[in-house]
Amino acid sequence: MSGSCVSFQEAEPRAKKPDWLRVKLPIGESYKNVRNLVDTHKLHTICESGNCPNMGECWGAGTATFMILGNICTRSCGFCAVATGRPEAVDWDEPQRVAEAIYLMKVKHAVITSVDRDELKDGGSIIWYNTIKAVKALTPGTTLETLVPDFKGEKENIQRIIEAAPEVVSHNIETVERMTRQVRIQAKYWRSMEVLKYLKESGMRTKSGIMLGLGETQEEVLQTMRDLRASGVDVITIGQYLQPTRKHLPVQRFVHPQEFDEYTLAGYEMGFDYVESGPLVRSSYHSERHVYPGIGKLQWEQKKAMMA
Ligand code: SF4
User: Fold this and answer.
1) 1 lines ligand 1 (CB under 6 A)
2) Which of 29, 106, 129, 151 could, after both became Cys, cross-link 160 (CB 3.0–4.6 A)?
C-alpha cells in the first residue's frame, strides 16, 4: 500500500518503550463482533497485518481498516509487517465482500487500503474502483477514506480512484526525502508528492502520513511537512515508528509527546486543515474526523485555550 501501512509492534524491542507508548489490550463485545465479521468474510485488515497498537480502541468502536487485493505485497518496505512475495490471483468477489462487511458493521466511516500490486497492469486500480463503488451502492451514507498505493505514478490508474470519488484519498509519504530509499526502497519521494498533487488538483480531499524515530532530523520532518503542503495535502498524520520484528528497521529514537505537539502547531501554521500528531497516531487513527474540513483546527484551538 505504498506508503500506507505502518507497522506497530516491537516483538523484541531493543530499547525499553516509554510509558506514553503503552496501549490497552483488545477486549469487549464490539471487538468480538468485528473479529467475527472479518473472519467470516475472509477479509484482511491492516490492523492485524500491521500489528496496530490501536486495534483494541478502533475495533472496540466498531471500525476497522480493510486491506484489499490480498495480504502479500510486491514491495518490501523496511518498516512494514505485511508479507512480501508473489501475490495470489485477484479475487473479483472481494469488493462485494468488503461492502457486505461494512454494511453488517453499520459503520458510518470506513478505511480501505491495499497491498501494492506492481505486477498487475492496472496496479489493482480496477478492484479499488469496484470496491469503492460496491460500498457506496450498499451503504450510501458511509464515508470512505482510501489509503492508496502510488500506482507507480500512472495517471490512468490514479484516475480510477478519482472517478470512484471516496471522501478522502490518502497516500503516505512515510519518511523524509533523505531516508526514502532506505525505508521504502521501491518508492520515490517526489513521485509520491506528484501523486498527492494530482489527486488534489482533481478535487480530492487528500491526506498523508509520516513515521518518526527512523533517524530523521526535526528539520527534515518540517521540510517534509512543507513539501506535503506544497502538494496540496489537507490532512497529515505523524506518529512514532515501532519495529515489528528484529528483521525490520530499528527504532532510532522515541519522540517525546511534546515534540509531536510542536509538529501540530507547525502544521496548522503551514496551513494543513487537520494535523493528527502523537506517539500512537497511525494513518487510520481517528480517520472519521478527517473527512470534514475545519474540525482539526477547531479542536486544536480548544486544546490550546484549555492549556492557557
Ligand atoms: S511493503 Fe507493501 S504493504 Fe507494506 S508499506 Fe510497503 S507497499 Fe505498503
Assistant:
1) yes
2) 129
The confidence score (pLDDT) of residue 5 equals 41
For ligand 1, say whether the CB of 81 is within 6 Å of any of its atoms: no
The residue whose CA is least distant from atom 7 of ligand 1 is 2
- d(CA 119, ligand 1 centre) in Å: 14
Which residue has 489537507 as its cell numbers?
A: 234
Residues 200 and 231 sit within 8 Å (Cβ to Cβ):
yes
Whole-number Å distance between alpha carbons of 296 and 236: 11
Question: What are the pLDDT digits (tens) for 130-145?
Answer: 999 999 999 999 999 9
Domain segments of the chain as ranges: 19-307
Q: Which residue's entry shows cell 470496491? A: 131
Task: Evaluate whether 236 touches 194 at the Cβ level (below 8 Å).
Answer: no
- Rounded distance, CA 112 to CA 162, Å? 15
Does the 19-307 domain belong in CATH 3.20.20.70?
yes
Q: What predicted TM-score, i.e. pTM, was given to this entire model?
A: 0.89
